[in-house]
Specification:
alpha+beta
């Protein structure tokens, strides 16, 4: 249970697996994910926010609507609904190494 918001802790999603063995590494990976999302979603008129205090990622559109997605697979569904268009996160515009180079974790 989250002490800040009262939500039960999430079981985790496969996209959050990997080498993040410590809480610090998991937090760093979480912020890295939202940085990548912030490089993709504006092309669809959307924003992403993760304050690490609440579970999930908040996706918003330009009219002020916001929805919290629990994990990355839910995020794409939410983003398509808010943006009223289909989103391909593997679109070559976004998988170009220069687009996703928002800083390596050290």
């Amino acid at each position: 249970m989250c002490g800040s918001c009262g939500f039960p802790s999430a079981a985790g999603h496969w996209t959050e697996a990997g080498s993040a063995s410590t809480a610090h590494d998991r937090l760093r990976a979480r912020f890295r994910r939202v940085q990548v999302l912030r490089s993709i979603l504006p092309a669809y008129g959307l924003t992403a926010h993760d304050d690490a205090l609440t579970p999930g990622i908040v996706v918003g559109n330009m009219t002020g609507n916001q929805v919290t997605a629990a994990d990355l697979s839910e995020l794409w569904t939410v983003a398509e609904r808010l943006g009223s268009q289909s989103i391909d996160p593997l679109d070559p515009r976004f998988t170009d190494a220069t687009c996703l180079d928002v800083g390596e974790a050290s």
